[in-house]
Design brief:
The chain has 699 residues and is an alpha/beta fold. It has 4 domains: 23-135, no CATH class; 165-231, no CATH class; 258-537, Rossmann fold (3-Layer(aba) Sandwich), CATH 3.40.50.300; 570-694, no CATH class. Helices cover 45% and strands 12% of the residues. Strands 6-5-14-13-12-7-11-10-8-9 form a 10-stranded mixed β-sheet. Strands 1-2-4-3 form a 4-stranded antiparallel β-sheet. It has a two-stranded antiparallel sheet with strand order 15-16. Helix 8 links the parallel strand 8 (302-307) and strand 9 (339-341). Helix 1 (23-44) runs antiparallel to helix 4 (101-163), helix 2 (48-68) packs antiparallel against helix 3 and helix 23 packs across helix 24 (666-678). The two termini are 76 Å apart.
C-alpha cells in the first residue's frame, strides 16, 4: 500500500553559508575559535608557544594579501593586530587556564573591540573606494572636457572663418556609435541656422572630412540655437545587411527604413503621411522598396498592396514563398503582401477597391471615432491601415497614355480623400525632375521623401525634393543604396538603406506570416469579390511557379488543341505557337506571319450565322472558327464565364467584368452571354448601365 509522505517545511532562519563574515560574525568566529583552541591546548598539554607561532603566521599572511588588494593602512593594522591579540590571549589562556572569569572576560572585551574596529574600517574602505572612483571619473571627465574644449575652439574658429559667424559652443555630444559628434551652439544676434547650413559643404572640405561624411546644421532648441552634426566615419560605403530581428512593428511607433550616418535607425511615421522614393536605375531603389515592404510585413496593423506594371517584379519575391513548388498555395504561409497588381486592369480594380473601402469607412466607423474623440480612424490590428506601394507611380501620374491617365486620376483621388481613413501611398520615381515633382498632390502629401543618388547627378535636383534645405549634394552619397531622407520629424540628411536578399525576403515572409492582420470585416464586405478573389488561381497563374526551374505555367497538351505548324493568325493566338526547328526559320516564319496577319487579319468574309457574327469580328474562314461552329453549346470560354458568374452570387456580373475574367473583347462576350441566356443557361437582369447576368442557381 503506497503512502504519501509530505516533506516537512522548515520555518527557522535560513543561513547563507557562502556569505562572508561581517563585523559581528567575524568577531564571534575569532573569539570562539580562540576559546576552543585554548581549552583543547590546556587539556592536552600543548606548548603555549605554538599558538603564538600560528598567530604570527596569520598576521604575516593577511599583511601580504592586504598589500596585494591595495587596501588602506587602517585595514592592514586591524587584520595584523587581530591575529596577534588573538594569538597572545590563546597563549596566556593555555598557560593559566581558559575557563576562569578573568580569561573569559578579557576574551569578550577582545571580541567587542575587534567587531567595533572591523565596522569602522569597513566604512572607511567603502568611502575610500567611492573617492577613488570619483577621482577616476574626474580624471576622465577632465580629459573629455579638454578634448571637447579643443574641438569647440577648432570649430568656433572654422565657422568664423568659413561662414563669417561667431558662435558660442554650449555643449558637444559624442555619438554612441563613435562615428561623429554634435555641437550645440548659440548664434549671435539675429543670425539664423541656415547661415551655417548653406556653407556645410565648405565646412566639410575645410575640416578634411572623408568622402561620405558631412556637416549638417539644423535648428536648435529655439531659433537662436543651432545643432551641427559632424560625421567623421563614413558608414555609407559599406553594405549594411537587413537586421535579422523580425519582431512586430506598428504604424504608430514608426517603421525602420535604413541607417543614418550617425548609426541610428531611420524611423518613418506614415499614419497620416504618404511617401516618395526617388532613385535612378542602379541606385538601389528596388532594394529600398523591399526594405519598405519588409517593414510593412512586420507591422501588425498594416496591409500592403503593391502596384508594379513592370511584370509585378517588386511584389513577386513577397508572394512566391507562399506557394509550394508546384504553384499551389501554402496553407501555413501567407504572402508577405496582401495584393499584387501587375496590369493596368488589376491596378484599376485595386484602386477602385481602396476608394470603396475608404468611403465606406467614413460612414461605418463614425461611432468608433466619436467614442475615441478623434477625427482619424483608430488604426489597429482589427482595423489595419492599407499602404499602397506604387512602383514608378510618379511616372504614372505624368504619363499621357490613356490607361495611365485613368490610373493617375484614381491614385490622386486615393491620396486626396483617404488620409483620415488609414489608406496611404508610397510612390517611387526614377528622377527628381520637375515633370515628376510637378504634381501638387505629391509635393503636399508626400512629406516623407527619399532620394537615392548612387552618385548620379543628372536629374537629381535635391532642392526640388527637399525644399528649403541647403548644402545637400548628390556627390555626398556616391554609393549604391545611399542617399538622403527627410521626414516631418527630422531634417533631410544622409542615410543608407539596408541590403536585403531574396532568401532573407523568404525568411521574413515565413517569420511574419502570423503577424499579418486581415481586412476588417466591414471593409471586406464592401470590397467584394474583386478583393476576395485576388489570390484565385485564374488571377495568379502568371505569378505561380510550376516547377523548380522558375518557368511560368504553360497550358498542357490536354488543355490546348494540337495543331500543325502554320500561320500564327489571330484566331489561334490564345494557344502558344509550336517551337520552330531552328532560330533562322523561327525569325523568318514570324516575319512572314506578321505580314500575312497584317494584310488578311481584317478581311471581311460572310459568317455562317448571325450568332457567330456577333461572337467575333469578321476575318478569314479558318478551321479554328469552324471548330467553334461545331459546338452548339457556345464558345470554349463560356464554361469559365458561367463559373465566374455563379461564384459572384446573387449580385451577378456585368458583361465587362466577365470579359476581363475570360480575357476576351466585350462585344464577343456580350453576344455569347446573350445566346447563353436564350438557352436558359443564364438569367439577364436589365438595369440600364448596371445590367448583370445571374446564374440560374441564384436567380
Amino acid at each position: 500500500m503506497a503512502t504519501n509522505i509530505t516533506p516537512k517545511t522548515s520555518t527557522g532562519p535560513v543561513w547563507d553559508w557562502a556569505a562572508g563574515h561581517g563585523p559581528v560574525t567575524g568577531a564571534l568566529s575569532a573569539t570562539t575559535g580562540a576559546l576552543a583552541l585554548a581549552t583543547t591546548g590546556a587539556a592536552t598539554g600543548m606548548p603555549p608557544v605554538w599558538a603564538l607561532a600560528v598567530g604570527t603566521a596569520g598576521a604575516i599572511g593577511h599583511t601580504i594579501s592586504t598589500l596585494r588588494e591595495r587596501l588602506s593602512a587602517r585595514t592592514l593594522t586591524l587584520r595584523a593586530s587581530s591575529w596577534l591579540l588573538g594569538a597572545g590571549w590563546t597563549t596566556w589562556a593555555i598557560a593559566d587556564g581558559p575557563l576562569t572569569w578573568q580569561a573569559i572576560g578579557s576574551l569578550a572585551v577582545l571580541g567587542v573591540g575587534i567587531g567595533t574596529a572591523t565596522r569602522s574600517t569597513s566604512l572607511y574602505e567603502d568611502a575610500r573606494e567611492l573617492e577613488l572612483i570619483a577621482l577616476a571619473d574626474r580624471q576622465v571627465n577632465a580629459e573629455i572636457q579638454a578634448e571637447r574644449r579643443t574641438l569647440a575652439a577648432e570649430w568656433v574658429e572654422r565657422i568664423q572663418r568659413v561662414c563669417g559667424v561667431t558662435v558660442t559652443v554650449l555643449a558637444i555630444e559624442k555619438w554612441p556609435t563613435a562615428t561623429g559628434f554634435t555641437i550645440d551652439a548659440e548664434l549671435p544676434g539675429a543670425t539664423t541656422y541656415d547661415r551655417i547650413a548653406k556653407d556645410s559643404a565648405l565646412l566639410s572640405a575645410d575640416a578634411r572630412l572623408p568622402h561620405g561624411c558631412t556637416v549638417a546644421a539644423t535648428p536648435g532648441i529655439h531659433q537662436g540655437r543651432v545643432l551641427i552634426d559632424i560625421s567623421t566615419v563614413n558608414v555609407l560605403e559599406r553594405e549594411i545587411p537587413y537586421p535579422s530581428e523580425y519582431g512586430p512593428l506598428s504604424i504608430h511607433t514608426g517603421l525602420p527604413w535604413g541607417v543614418r550616418s550617425d548609426g541610428r535607425d531611420v524611423l518613418v511615421h506614415l499614419r497620416e503621411q504618404c511617401a516618395l522614393i526617388v532613385g535612378p536605375t542602379g541606385s538601389g531603389k528596388t532594394n529600398m522598396v523591399h526594405d519598405v515592404l519588409a517593414g510593412f510585413a512586420r507591422a501588425t496593423d498594416i496591409l500592403s498592396w503593391v502596384i508594379d506594371l513592370n511584370a509585378g517584379s517588386a511584389g513577386l519575391p513577397w508572394v512566391r514563398p507562399a506557394f509550394d513548388g508546384d504553384g499551389t498555395p501554402d496553407r501555413e504561409t501567407r504572402p508577405g503582401i496582401d495584393w499584387l497588381a501587375s496590369t493596368p486592369e488589376e491596378a484599376e480594380l485595386m484602386l477602385d477597391t481602396a476608394l470603396k473601402v475608404g468611403k465606406h469607412r467614413k460612414v461605418v466607423y463614425q461611432d468608433l471615432m466619436a467614442k475615441e474623440n478623434t477625427d482619424l480612424l483608430p488604426i489597429s490590428a482589427r482595423i489595419p491601415q492599407i499602404m499602397i506601394l506604387i512602383d514608378e507611380g510618379a511616372e504614372i501620374l505624368t504619363s499621357n497614355d490613356p490607361k495611365m491617365r485613368k490610373l493617375a486620376a484614381k491614385i490622386v483621388e486615393v491620396i486626396r480623400l483617404l488620409r483620415s481613413m488609414g489608406i496611404r501611398t508610397v510612390l517611387t520615381a526614377l528622377g527628381a525632375t520637375g515633370a515628376v515633382l510637378g504634381n501638387l498632390m505629391i509635393r503636399r502629401e508626400a512629406k516623407t521623401r527619399v532620394c537615392l543618388t548612387g552618385g548620379e547627378v543628372e536629374g537629381m535636383d535635391l532642392s526640388r525634393i527637399f525644399q528649403g534645405s541647403r548644402g545637400l549634394r548628390p556627390e555626398q552619397a556616391p554609393y549604391k543604396g545611399a542617399g538622403f531622407i527627410g521626414t516631418p520629424e527630422s531634417a533631410p540628411g544622409l542615410f543608407k538603406s539596408w541590403r536585403i536578399t531574396p532568401n532573407q525576403i523568404a525568411d521574413i515572409v515565413r517569420a511574419t506570416s502570423p503577424l499579418h492582420p486581415r481586412l476588417d470585416e466591414s471593409s471586406a464586405k464592401v470590397a467584394g469579390p474583386d478583393y476576395a478573389r485576388r489570390w484565385d488561381s485564374e488571377r495568379t497563374a502568371w505569378m505561380r511557379i510550376t516547377d523548380g526551374t522558375g518557368t511560368r505555367p504553360v497550358p498542357s497538351a490536354e488543355t490546348r488543341p494540337a495543331r500543325p505548324g502554320g500561320l500564327n493568325l489571330s484566331a489561334l493566338r490564345d494557344a502558344p505557337a509550336p517551337a520552330a526547328p531552328a532560330a533562322d526559320e523561327d525569325a523568318l516564319a514570324a516575319q512572314f506571319m506578321a505580314q500575312i496577319d497584317a494584310q488578311f487579319g481584317t478581311t471581311d468574309e460572310p459568317a455562317p450565322d448571325d450568332r457567330e457574327e456577333g461572337e467575333r469580328s469578321h476575318g478569314l474562314n479558318l478551321s479554328a472558327f469552324r471548330k467553334e461552329r461545331e459546338k452548339p453549346e457556345g464558345p470554349d470560354w463560356l464554361p469559365d464565364a458561367l463559373d465566374a458568374i455563379k461564384a459572384a452570387g446573387p449580385g451577378g456580373m456585368k458583361p465587362s467584368a466577365v470579359a476581363d475574367a475570360v480575357a476576351k473583347d466585350r462585344k464577343t462576350v456580350r453576344a455569347g452571354l446573350k445566346a447563353a441566356a436564350e438557352r436558359g443557361e443564364l438569367v439577364y437582369r436589365d438595369n440600364g448601365p448596371h445590367s448583370v447576368y445571374v446564374h440560374p442557381d441564384h436567380a
